[in-house]
Amino acid sequence: MSSDPATIRIAVDVEDDAGGVARRAAAVLAAACRASVDARGSCSIAVSGGTTPWAMLAALADEDVPWAALGIWQVDERIAPSGHDDRGLTHLRASLPTQGRTRVRAMPVDDLDPDDEPALAAAAAAYEAELPEQFDLIHLGLGADGHTASLVPGDAALDVRNRGVTITGPYQGRRRMTLTFPVLDRAREILWVATGASKAAPLGLLCARDPSIPASRVAAPDQRAVVDRAAWGDARR
Q1: pTM for this one?
Q2: Distance, CA of 113 to CA of 173 (rounded, Å)
């Protein structure tokens, strides 16, 4: 159940550097997985891309993760050929411990033409049909422009409320498939991960629940951010 975004307060863990963020975020993610399996017998998570998140996924090798009961979905994906370096899946599979690689449910973008609107819509609908009713945890990143997932400023995907998965316009050279706000808002827990000075300004806006950035529109009631000191600079209150 989502809340009014303006009333949400985000719990923040501040680590010294990106390595500390990756390890702490891995511990938070693993604990959430164990709690979900204990409570409901399974766990479903969705993960975003990025250098520190990939390190977070690699750090799961040092955590107690109930892999056999875990499903891993993608928050978003660039429409690019299979194995391309632009693809989040390429790095997701490379980063995860061996036990986790078979748990990934990839967004179906391998053979998509970014100009074929019917095929794009069908692929988004097919992925939506595979989603759990409610994610136990969704990991989100934070762009320097305040975007999260592939919900970027000015894109029509920001206003999609009748679908759980949609296709964006071009952003940084690629169209993308992304989860939409209704799916993010239903998550039992949101885990933000942000590192580096370029994230300080948007993190400040996120913590202040400033509606000028897409990230602040995520309305799941339980949100935590794991950040480094460089990113925390302007967010400190």
Answers
A1: 0.95
A2: 14
CA distance 92 to 86: 11
Which residues span the domain enclosing 79? 5-235
Reference 136, options 59, 207, 222, 55; nearest CA is: 222
Domain count, the chain: 1
Q: In which order are the strands placed within the sheet that holds 165-167?
A: 76-78, 176-179, 165-167
Q: How far apart are CA 103 and CA 39, in angstroms?
A: 20
Q: What string of H, E and C letters represents the secondary structure of 14-37?
A: EECCHHHHHHHHHHHHHHHHHHHH
Stretch 217-234: mean pLDDT? 93
Residue with tokens 């998550």: 187
Query: What's 80's domain CATH number?
Result: 3.40.50.1360
What confidence score (pLDDT) does residue 236 get? 62
